[in-house]
Amino acid sequence: MRVPNLLIFMTDHQRADTVLPEHPAITPNLDRFVRDGVTFTDAFCPSPHCCPSRATFFTGLYPSGHGVWNNVCNRQALSLGVREGVRLWSEDLAQAGYALHFSGKWHVSVTEGPADRGWTEHFVSADKSAHHGWRWDQYRKLAESPEKTARGEAEILRPGYGDYRLYAAGEAGALQHDETTLARALDLLPRLAAGDQPWCLYVGLIGPHDPYIVPQKYLDLYDLSDVPLPPSHADDLADKPAVYRRMRQMRFGQLSEREAREGIRHFWTYCTYLDDLFGQLLAALDRAGQRENTLVLYTSDHGDYCGEHGLFAKGIPCFQGAYRVPAVVRWPAGIAAPGRRVDAFVSLADFGPTFLDAAGITTDRRFTGASLLPFLRGESPAGWRDEIHTQCNGVELYYTQRSVMTREFKYVFNGFDHDELYDLAADPHEMRNLADDGAYEDVKRAMCRRMWRFAHREDDTAINPYITVGLAPYGPAEAFR
After folding, report:
1. 5-134+163-376 topology per CATH
2. Which residues contact 113 (CB under 8 A, 6 or more apart)?
């Protein structure tokens, strides 16, 4: 069989549960796609942030391997792109004869663009010229305007920062970005089909990133009375790190329960809009006669709390809503028993090795991830991971945080505050922090051991024995016990 074409549809900020047919989000195209593919229900990003997660997707490495820790597009950047010597899987595909085409969001480096890594660029955002955030002249201008004293709908007042609006109905620049991204891809597909090379097309959207600005016609599909608050919404975060409470109390706590439900409604609406774009892309693929031997991936760079624990967007709170990502693969010529769900722990780091495996490309370099091809064939690979890890050094505020999750427990090392430990069987919504409960001390030590073994394997340098920074309850020597 000819090696497959690859079509990657990556959204930004989309929760994993929104692609499941039983979720209230209206996604008819994804529903059909799920029936024809394999859904990985426990897929995770390594960090709740665009740049490190996208770098993981494109390299098959965790942040400790590729060197991208936070937003590369502003002055808080800990790095400007992947470290020297790190290779992207796109370079392997290009070397093997694939025609690579890129449309949409990059956000991996400001020193390199997709073209530097084997891609033909058609429309690229969050690249070398991008700057995210405000400069001093913008704050000076803000100071010249009167401060608001009363909130409007969905508004969060932030004196000295500029007020924030979580949601609205309208046509925002984000929608224009995604329409342009899709248009370039739709224009390309017939030409790719007419060529004699295998191809890879990357389509990178920026929805459903906050603020959730959505077209009214999609919003009208949802009745607010049908939108519940998450079970954890009322969590007072009293047993969580103080910065979690600060984020809730200072910012999202300004929203009423109705506004929180409206935020969720708008997020679901955004997913419906994206589903419409995805449907157009799939239809174009069919018209081009490329359905059978094209491996199509629907995924996202990270998730969104979407009201969980009273929070929205993403950040240092290490709750699963920000870390679980959609991951659905369709490949008619290469999937056994379509319509299956796989609950193995999967990472964004696994897709690069999967693409190379599907393309018949071998390499001796090391990945954090591993190929998912056995799962697509209906096999259960021996020795597959029984835990999932995260690596975060903060977003634009710097924090050292690592976590490890098994089927039974989740442990979060917060170098800046109290740690977290959750019994996931009894507490799937992560409401009760057991880190200081002596009855779970053995569990905590075992989870620290898992954390440090992964850190050693990935050469994670978030380790120092100095008295004021060596603050994990059990230190790195646990890796060797």
Report:
1. Alkaline Phosphatase, subunit A (3.40.720)
2. 106, 121, 124, 127, 128
User: Where do the DSSP E strands lie in 283-407?
Assistant: 294-300, 327-330, 340-342, 346-347, 388-394, 398-405
Structure tokens that stand for 387 in this block: 């835990």
Residue with tokens 């809503």: 321
The CA-to-CA distance between both ends of the chain, in Å, stands at 47
- Flag whether the pTM goes above 0.90: yes
* CB-based contacts of 471, cutoff 8 Å, min separation 6: 415
Neighbour count for residue 365 (Cβ, 10 Å): 10
Chain mean position to CA 421: 23
Give the three-class secondary structure for 408: coil
CB atoms within 10 A of CB 197: 11
Reduced to 3 states (helix: H, G, I; strand: E, B; else coil), residue 39 is: strand
Contact between 97 and 198 under an 8 Å Cβ cutoff? The reply is yes
**Measured between alpha carbons, how far is 126 from 102 in angstroms, rounded to an integer?**
13
Beta strands in 67-171 (DSSP E): 99-105, 120-125, 155-156, 164-165, 167-169
Amino acid at residue number 47: S
Alpha-carbon distances of 48 from 169, 329, 414, rounded to whole Å: 26, 22, 15
Is it the case that residue 361 has pLDDT exceeding 80? yes
β partners of residue 330: 296
pLDDT digits (tens, 9 = 90+) for 413-464: 999 999 999 999 999 999 999 999 999 999 999 999 999 999 999 999 888 8
Q: Dihedrals φ, ψ of 367, to 5°?
A: -120, 150
- DSSP-derived letter for residue 287 is H
Please compute the mean of the pLDDT values over residues 383-401 and round it to a whole number.
95
Average the pLDDT over 10-30 and give the result: 98
Q: CA–CA separation, 316 vs 401, rounded Å?
A: 8
Of the candidates 110, 120, 118, 162, the one whose C-alpha atom is nearest the C-alpha of residue 141 is 162
Residue ranges per structural domain of the chain: 5-134+163-376, 406-480
Q: How many CB atoms lie within 10 A of CB 97?
A: 11
| Per-residue pLDDT tens digits for 62-117 | 999 999 999 888 888 889 899 999 999 999 999 999 999 999 999 999 999 999 99
Q: Which helix (H) or strand (E) holds 176?
A: helix 173-194
- Binned at pLDDT 50, 70 and 90, residue 171 comes out as confident
